[in-house]
Amino acid sequence: MLKPTRLLLVALLALPLTGLGGCGKRGPLKPLRQPLPQAVGQAALSQKGDALLLGWDAPRANQDGSSLSDLKGFAVYKIDYEPAKGCPECRIPQQLWRQVDLAGPADDQSQRYYLWDNAVDEDSGYRYRIVPLTRAGGTGAETLLHRPLLPAPPAPPAPAARALAHQVELRWSAAEVQDAARQSGGSWLGVNLYRCDAGAYYGPRPLNSSPITADLYRDSRVQNGQCYQYALRSVVQYGEQIVESRLGTATEACPQLPQGL
C-alpha cells in the first residue's frame, strides 16, 4: 500500500503541464502590426509670387523596407510663425490644412504632388507637416518644411514669340529683367519660363531645369497646329531664400508647318 506522501507525488505528476503556473495558457490572438510608410521624398517649399508651393514625391517603401502597397494619400498640416523669432522653436503643426488622395493606383508611387497656398501674408512664416496615410488607418513618417513669405520681385514683361515648324523661339531683354530685380534689393539669378496650352492653366514647373540668364529659349517640345501660351517669372535670391516673381504677361504662339508642304 502506498504511503500518503507517495500518493501525493503520483497525483502531482499526473497533472497536465498546462495547469502548472499557467505556462501553457493562450490569450486572444493579436493581429500583426502593419508596416508604416517612409517619409515622402524630395519635399520642397517654394515661393512663386504671392503664394507658396508645396511639392513632394510619394514614398516608395515602408519603414521596414517592405513594399508599400496600401498608400491612401497624405495629410498636410499648417501653422504660421514670426520669422524674426525663427522656426526651429516654432510649434509642430497639428491643425489639418489639406488631405490629398492618391491620383492613381495604390501601388503607383511615381506621381509628384503639389499644393498651392494662397492664404499667406508677407512678413509671416509658415510651417507644414506632410504625413503619408495608409488605407488601414496608419500614419507614416512625417516631413516638416518651413519658410517666410517675402516681397515678390517685379514680374518680367511678356517674351516675344516666333512660331516655327515644330518649334517656338522666345526672346526677352535679360538686362531689363535683371535691372528690375536689382531694384527690389535681391540678387538676380535668371528667369523661369512657363508654358501651357492656350486657354489652360500654367503648371507648377517651368520648362527650364535651372534659371535662364540668356535672352533666348527655343522650345522644341511642341506640336504643329497647337497654340501655346508662355510667361516668365524672375528668380531672385534674398539672403538664403530664393523667390520667384509673379507670372509676367503671357504671349501666344502657334507652330505650323510651312505652307505648301
Give the helix/strand layout.
Layout: H1 4-14, E1 41-48, E2 51-57, E3 71-81, E4 96-101, E5 112-117, E6 125-134, E7 143-148, E8 160-164, E9 167-171, H2 174-183, E10 187-197, E11 216-219, E12 228-238, E13 241-244, E14 251-253
What can be said about this structure in brief?
The chain has 261 residues and is mainly beta.
Characterization of this structure:
The protein has helices spanning 4-14, 174-183; strands at 41-48, 51-57, 71-81, 96-101, 112-117, 125-134, 143-148, 160-164, 167-171, 187-197, 216-219, 228-238, 241-244, 251-253. The protein is mainly beta and 261 residues long. Strands 1, 2, 5, 10, 12, 13 and 14 form a 7-stranded mixed β-sheet that branches. A 4-stranded antiparallel β-sheet has the order 4-3-6-7, with no helix packed on it. A 3-stranded antiparallel β-sheet has the order 8-9-11, with no helix packed on it.
Which segments are poorly predicted (pLDDT under 50) over 5 or more consecutive residues?
7-15, 17-22
- Assembly state (oligomeric): single chain
Give the N-terminus to C-terminus distance in angstroms.
121 Å
The count of strands amounts to 14
Radius of gyration: 30 Å
Shape: flat
Q: Encode the helix/strand succession as letters.
A: HEEEEEEEEEHEEEEE
Helix coverage percent = under 10%
Structure class: mainly beta
Compute the average pLDDT: 87
